[in-house]
Amino acid sequence: MSGLEIRRLRVSFDGFTAVDGVDLDVRPGDLRFLIGPNGAGKTTLVDAVTGLVKAEGSVRFDGEELLGRSVHRIARSGIGRTFQTATVFEELTVLQNLDIAAGAGRSMWTMLRRRKDVPESVVRALETIGLTDLADSPAGTLAHGQKQWLEIGMLLVQDVRLLLLDEPVAGMSHDEREATGALLRRISEERTVVVIEHDMDFMRSFARSVSVLHAGRLLSEGTVAEVQADPKVQEVYLGHAAATEDATVVQEA
Ligand SMILES: Nc1ncnc2c1ncn2[C@@H]1O[C@H](COP(=O)(O)OP(=O)(O)O)[C@@H](O)[C@H]1O
Ligand SMILES: [Mg+2]
């Protein structure tokens, strides 16, 4: 089977089970949203898939088992992720960031070469993420949303086939969110995309399918409509609402 296939995934920290026997299938062309209250285990699941934490069970991508492989080997298998905070090189330009991502293994001289030598993959990524006009600007001068797009571009030039994005629209303006949603739709036509998200409006507008995680377990799965109509999901989000300041998420859920 192609795509992502997770079985009985379990991650424990000193006896505390953060991910507790999760099964998840994401096919290429899907745009899967992974939602759930804080502490549900969403980031830990992505950490397990990318090799950052030890896990039990099975994680296959395009049929290959990933669990037990090193972080680098998993990255070389075509799997990339972003973190909740952007990790671009602020001093370098947009183009240089993409060039470095594209050219892992090439010399510094080749990577910092002039514009006219820009590889096709970098030109295409710049267009896809909408930063062509800002190619020569230092990444540190980009707006918050643009930095997240640059990070996604860095995964595109590596020709990542599975993108795992951890709260990519957190802190973005409404317009930035819309642009990001459109970007994720384009990307998911050719690649498998999993988005961890908190924002219900964003999820409703762009998710093709949704998995809800709660206390390390899969609570519900389906289309946006199915998940929203699920009493178990309503209960978790309402309970969550009473206990936290996250009132917007709750009211809309
Ligand atoms: N390195 C760690 N050591 C101990 N506990 C952790 C570690 N990472 C995450 N946790 C715990 O695992 C649970 C799930 O965390 P996380 O995956 O970050 O949740 P989410 O991303 O859904 O908000 C939380 O209770 C968190 O405190
Ligand atoms: Mg998280």
TrEMBL record:
Xref: SMART domains: AAA (SM00382)
GO MF entries: ATP binding; ATP hydrolysis activity
GO annotation, cellular component aspect: plasma membrane
InterPro entries for the chain: AAA+_ATPase, ABC_AA/LPS_Transport, ABC_transporter-like_ATP-bd, ABC_transptr_urea_ATP-bd_UrtD, BCA_ABC_TP_C, P-loop_NTPase
Keywords, in A-Z order: ATP-binding, Nucleotide-binding, Transport
Gene3D superfamilies recorded: P-loop containing nucleotide triphosphate hydrolases
Location of the ABC transporter domain: 4-240
Record-linked PANTHER family: CONSERVED COMPONENT OF ABC TRANSPORTER FOR NATURAL AMINO ACIDS-RELATED (PTHR45772), HIGH-AFFINITY BRANCHED-CHAIN AMINO ACID TRANSPORT ATP-BINDING PROTEIN (PTHR45772:SF8)
Protein name, entry field: ABC transporter ATP-binding protein
